[in-house]
Predict the 3D structure of the following.
Amino acid sequence: RPIGYFVVAPFANATLRCMKYGQWLDIIKALSVRRPVVVVGNSSLRLPDMDMSAGEFSQAVAQIGGGVFNAVDSTTIRVLMALISRSFCLVGLDSAPLYMAQAVGTPAISIWGTHAPAARIGYDKNYMDLAIWRTDSCQFSPCFAYGKFPESKCPNGIRQTCCEVLGSVTVDDVLKKVDMVETANAQLGKFEA
């Protein structure tokens, strides 16, 4: 992987597994200081509106510039696999691109909310080490919610729009995991810093 770029996959089909798009914009901007960033996804899927719509998010990504490439709605599965396989690292949610990264052996920083990462990637220590799961932000985590927020458990009850665990993820959380990938790759001599 001599090409040093990040692939960021911010979309998931369910509100329960989505992070606010404003958080993603902050993460993308921080990552772009280190390496180019390719943002991928398909906005024609059933995507929830978080703090903005997926379309507004895509427009905001396109306006960042400075090494940020908006590939939302412009990559086939085959191209997405190629982008992921040649990337320095993927940053994404519990969604298809994470498992594509695993399939091709690309390091992946995964961000988790209602589900425990061990339930889905626990068989692979390398991917577990790169998982971000802020269980300290919700006493009921993991709630393994499917379909809708467990209103009796969520801090905002019926008004819950984003999982507290996902909402508590910071840019620093992501950058610490990026540092882990950079350290591991430097030791193996795989990537240019």
About this structure: The helical segments are 21-32, 54-64, 77-86, 96-104, 118-121, 125-129, 164-167, 171-188.
